[in-house]
Specification:
single chain, 302 residues, D-Maltodextrin-Binding Protein, domain 2, 5-stranded mixed sheet, 12 helices, 12 strands, elongated
Length: 302
């Protein structure tokens, strides 16, 4: 194979089973993928991938050659990662993190400050998405790092704990319980606001709340953390949230943060990256910088 770029096309089609998805993940047009597939077919004298239903499935010959081709591509990447030297001061990349709004509020400010110091020309984007989208993003390089509590994110993924969190209770300033010690009886008797963030520790929180007070105690459900700070300002609902978020929001909203009388386990906030980029100097620098920054904030967020 004279054109090594065809290896990347082959890998994408093998992984994604779709010319359109492969094009999206590679950042090229669908016609470019189709053209490369045509060249691959001419090179090997085989169709390689054929449309079965809505998926591009490999032919028997394609399955036969897949392992050596993919291993060759991995060797090329390994050689490139050893040859490349990364200088953060010259980096102009737009790094992409996968995180929830709580991560953007709590973690991004110190990360941005350090990024400006070490890599002043670099930029930063954040994205959301379900677990399968996160895994695909990490595998393709469209997402550099994921940050949060995502225990289901496992396939070919490296994980590094950066800080731990416990839950606290937030209420508006002037709430009838604002000047009292929050007891379990008072806690159960109140209406509650719950953030439904799928795949996170909020699921364990809701189970504990329902077990203690029943489903009727949940007055409102919302999908985002930040709207909750506004929603509890004009009523007597309680909001149970991570301590770091509570401390951060209390600097900007008239909120009272109290210890939680309900027993809910602490949880780890982790950094995640794909094995494909484990030895990449750029990714290695990024995750080490982020880890150093967030671990340095641990005492402030306790």
């Amino acid at each position: 194979m004279k054109d090594l770029n065809l290896l990347y096309i082959f890998e994408a089609l093998w992984r994604d089973h779709s010319t359109s998805i492969a094009a999206q993940n590679l950042g090229v047009t669908q016609s470019a993928v189709s053209s490369s597939l045509k060249r691959l077919r001419q090179t090997y004298g085989d169709r390689l991938f054929t449309l079965v239903g809505r998926r591009m499935e490999p032919t028997p010959f394609c399955i036969h050659i897949a392992t050596p081709l993919l291993e060759s591509l991995n060797l090329i990447r390994a050689a490139e990662s050893q040859m490349v030297e990364f200088d953060p001061e010259l980096c102009r990349k737009a790094f992409t993190f996968r995180m929830l709004d709580v991560g953007e509020v709590v973690c991004l400010p110190p990360i941005l400050k350090q990024l400006a110091s070490e890599a002043p020309l670099a930029r930063l984007n954040t994205v959301g998405g379900a677990m399968d989208e996160t895994l695909t993003g990490l595998a393709t390089g469209r997402v550099d790092l994921a940050l949060g509590y995502m225990p289901s994110l496992q396939t070919d993924i490296h994980r590094l704990p950066v800080f731990s969190q416990h839950y606290v209770c937030a209420m508006r300033l002037g709430h009838p319980l604002a000047d009292k010690v929050l007891t379990i009886a008072d806690f159960i008797a109140c209406d509650h606001l719950v953030v439904e963030a799928g795949g996170t520790s909020n699921q364990a929180l809701e189970r504990a709340l329902v077990d203690a007070a029943g489903k009727a105690c949940i007055k409102m459900r919302v999908p985002h953390h930040l709207s909750s700070a506004h929603l509890i300002l004009q009523n007597d609902m309680l909001w149970t949230l991570p301590n770091a978020l509570g401390k951060t929001l209390a600097q900007f909203y008239p909120l009272v943060i109290k210890p939680l009388p309900l027993q809910i386990p602490t949880f780890e906030i982790d950094l995640y990256w794909h094995d494909r980029f484990h030895r990449d100097p750029q990714n290695k620098w990024l995750r080490e910088m982020v880890s150093r920054v967030l671990k340095g904030q641990q005492a402030e967020w306790q």
